[in-house]
Amino acid sequence: MKKVLSGNEAIARGAYEAGVRVAAAYPGTPSTEILETIAKEYKEIYAEWSPNEKVALEVASGASLVGARAMASMKHVGVNVAADPFMTLSYVGVNGGLVLVTCDDPELYSSQNEQDNRNYAKFAKVPMLEPSDSQEAKDFMKLCFEISEKFDTPVMLRSVTRISHAKGIVRLDEPIIPPIQIEIKKDTPKYTMLPSYARVRHRFVEERFLRLKEFAEKFPENRMEINDSSVGIITSGISYQYCKEVFPDFSYLKLGMVWPLPKNLIAQFFEKVKKVYIVEELDPFLEDNIRAMGFKPKGGKDLFPICGELSPLLVEKGILGKKFKPRKPIFDQSLPPRPPNLCPGCPHRGVFVALRKFKVFTAGDIGCYTLGAYPPLNVVNSNVCMGSSISSAHGMAKALGEAGKGKIVAVIGDSTFLHAGVHPLMNVSYNKSNITVIIMDNRTTGMTGSQEHPGTGYTIRGEKTHQVDFIELGRALGIENPRKINPWNLEETENVIKEELEKDSPSLIISEGPCMLLRRSFKRVNKPLRVDQTKCIGCKSCINIGCPAISYQPVEGEMAVTADGKKRKGIASIEPTLCPGCHLCYQVCKFGAIQTEEERPIFGFEML
Amino acid sequence: MKDSVTNILLAGVGGQGVILASDIMSEVFMEAGFDVKKSEVHGMAMRGGIVTSHFRFGKKVYSPLIKEGEVDILFAFEQLEGLRWINHLKPNGKIVMNDHKINPPVVNLGEMEYPKNIPEIIKSKFHDFYLIKGTEIAAKLGDQRAANVVLLGAISKLFDVKEDIWLKIILNYLPPKVHELNKEAFILGRAEIK
Question: What residues contact B100, with CB distance under 8 A and at least 6 apart?
Answer without folding.
Answer: B77, B78, B79, B134, B135, B136, B147
